[in-house]
Specification:
The protein is flat and about 80 Å long. Helix 1 packs across helix 6 and helix 3 (65-77) crosses helix 4 (93-110). The chain has helices at 37-44, 58-63, 65-77, 93-110, 123-128, 144-160, 167-170, 187-199, 281-285, 293-301, 322-338, and strands spanning 4-11, 28-31, 48-56, 83-86, 114-118, 134-136, 229-234, 238-240, 256-259, 271-273, 307-314, 343-347. The protein starts with a strand and ends with a strand. With 349 residues, the chain is α/β, with parallel strands linked by helices. The strands form three sheets. A six-stranded mixed beta sheet has the order 2-3-1-4-5-6, sandwiched between helices. A four-stranded mixed beta sheet has the order 9-11-7-12, covered by helices on one side. Strands 8-10 form a two-stranded antiparallel sheet. The longest helix has 18 residues, at 93-110.
Amino acid sequence: MDKIRVVHYINNFFAGIGGEEKADIPPEIRPGTVGPGLALQQGLGDEFEVVATAICGDSHFGANLEEDTAKLLDMIAEYKPQLFVAGPAFNAGRYGVACGTMAKAVEEKLGIPVVTGMYVENPGVDMFRKDLFIIATGDSAADMRKSMPKMAALAKKLAKGEEVLGPSVEGYHERGIRVNYFADVRGSERGIQMLLKKMAKQPFETEYPMPVFDRVPPAPPVTDMKHAKIAVVTSGGIVPQGNPDHIESSSATKWGLYSIEGMDHMDKKDFMTIHGGYDRAFVTEDPDLVVPLDVLRELEKEGEFGELANYFITTTGTGTSTGNAKRFGEEFVPKLLEDNITAVILTST
């Protein structure tokens, strides 16, 4: 009996090529298993064979999304796979976006089952949960020994056309899909049972969980703009030439603070954009389009506000997890408070 052919996708780190310094490697494919593919093969068992491993650097994929997806699809198709597995990506945002993008593309173009795995705060979860089965993992590779068997078990079911049960049973992130079933107890009685447990402060599980939204109350308006000290914060990826702090082009894990003291505009000789989510051509020529230092200096001279902070704060917004975004704010807001910043202008793209 022929074995079911599997192609596995991983990034530069899990391929053993290197870390952030090698995140710009272009797409490639290697026969057989590489890195975590060994654990995948073990979990799938003798009926399956990992025939090839597709590899791409996270930064390269983020900066060349459409091109790299197309190239990898061509490479993967040559191996005639019957199953595709990506990751797991854990909490690595760029890796998660790449895994989700490739899994969705393979599912749509090659028409075969796909599985990936990510931590709940990985931006890839919200981006692809409605399209894919995404096994819930821990936040780091330390969870590999638990995550890979769950991915392999679900992948085997999908490849064999077996029934896939609910998220709590199979271990994947909820997809927003509800399936009818016959309960042993009618709805009114189940509702009363839950109510009694809730009143008795006992644990219970609702049959209709609601989404949790993070509500942030708006700050009070600026009452005296003429004396206000303004700072600029951007998610548009503007950094000094050379990107000295190596902020990622997507799914950022870092932010930077850079001086604009004595500058009347954002000169392209001094600044660049590393953002991976928009066409950079215009901003490369004129970084003022994202950090409008030229206009702010004019308004400052005209007395429309009191003072502009002598620095700006920057990161990349595309694909960045809400967890990291919240952490960024917690890290740089004390600096703004220390410098008596009255208000912040947040620019995006």
